[in-house]
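Take a look at my tokenised protein here and describe the backbone shape.
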Amino acid sequence: MITHYHRDHYLYRKGEEIYYKDKVIFLKDPVRNINPSQKIRSYVLLNKMNVKNLARKVAIIDNREYVLENIKITGSPPVPHGKPRTKLGYVVMILINIDEYRILHASDVQGPISRKALDYIVRMKPNLLIISGPPTYMVGTKIEQKYVDKALHNLVEIANKLPINSTIILDHHFMRDRNYRVYLEKLRKNIDKDRKIKLLTAAEYMGYRIKQLEAYRRELWENDYAYINEKE
């Protein structure tokens, strides 16, 4: 699955094209609803790196549905990468339906900030939502506080509309904030307790200890991973 063409979301380096060989690739439309930089990257991936010929199948996933044996795969319409009309372009969310259990991967919707993304998530009623959380660490640099506040509000609205006993995995942008726990506890307090919604980081969901590698990137590079070793 390639939800969009930002370089932390697909393999793009020379030599990595081998990993696409004989795979079925569902990808964001490389031509429509795409900003210039991602359009160039998608062209390089599919043509210069020859992935379109190496892969067993390449299929556009935007607003389409595919069935593989008992697994139904549905792509959302393109939604903003964060706030509406952002220069960062669009992403596609992916719904996996297996025996009526619904998993929705909402990559880089940042909260979501966009109402379009929120409405789609609620409409799909996922039992497990994996979502890129609000980019709280970017306030004052690349994003205004009002958009982060909106993302936090939207996330609570989603949690209160998902099926009872659903799980939300909140990660990616959200975990780049060293103070994520403050926001996480506020979110948990605002979710209707009767709905029994679990709000977790990816590490917590998998039973691992949390290691915020992105948030402590500078220290890790400067100290040759001493920070991680000290925390073991």
